């Protein structure tokens, strides 16, 4: 069976899980990963190719697809557009153990980890992480480069802004908006709208940082 060739960008903890998800779906051929930090010679059985300067050569050799596997939302955004600019096409990494409604809409460059559930009429935009065991209920809108961390639960009609991070095991009640590049702490209960560029924690969630850099 012909499988399209994919390069993974990143070699950290998030990349380990993304590689596992793509391998378990068995739809693509992973040619290797690139990284800027010192690396082992392979990660989960795929080879280290060098830093991103190798990318134009890979393209010439017929590797057309990529997945940016870094958990840092700001860096992931930058790399996502750099790779598209170079001429690569993003793939989605969908675990066979996730449940995605046929009425949900997915963008490009998205990972959906094992045990995640995306319900009807949810919209997940480009380069978003839907992490392990998280729940995205009906009519949610997740904007580009956001990260819904493991076990986070979003009720119906929640909007998550660009680059926002929703921490592990947090809960968000229906119709809440979380502003762009904001952070929701692990275990928080979000019961009112969160403005952009802030950090909220606790039950109920309260602001602890009033001005985040994009992260
Ligand atoms: C919210 C968070 C980003 C804050 O990190 P930070 O900016 O480094 O903040 P600090 O650790 O300095 O904590 C600041 C204060 O908030 C409190 N706090 C931090 N995180 C909290 C949380 N999740 N719930 C309740 N209180 C929290 C701290 O106890 C501290 O309180 P104090 O000032 O009274 O001592 C971080 O604690 C967090 O929850 N991250 C989520 C991690 C996660 O989900 N990872 C998933 C990876 S896939």
TrEMBL record:
Residue ranges of domain PglD N-terminal in the record: 5-82
Enzyme Commission identifier(s): 2.3.1.-
Entry keyword Lyase: no
SUPFAM superfamilies from the UniProt entry: Trimeric LpxA-like enzymes (SSF51161)
Statement: the UniProt record of this protein carries the keyword Acyltransferase: yes
Keywords linked to the UniProt accession: Acyltransferase, Repeat, Transferase
Protein name, per record: UDP-perosamine 4-acetyltransferase
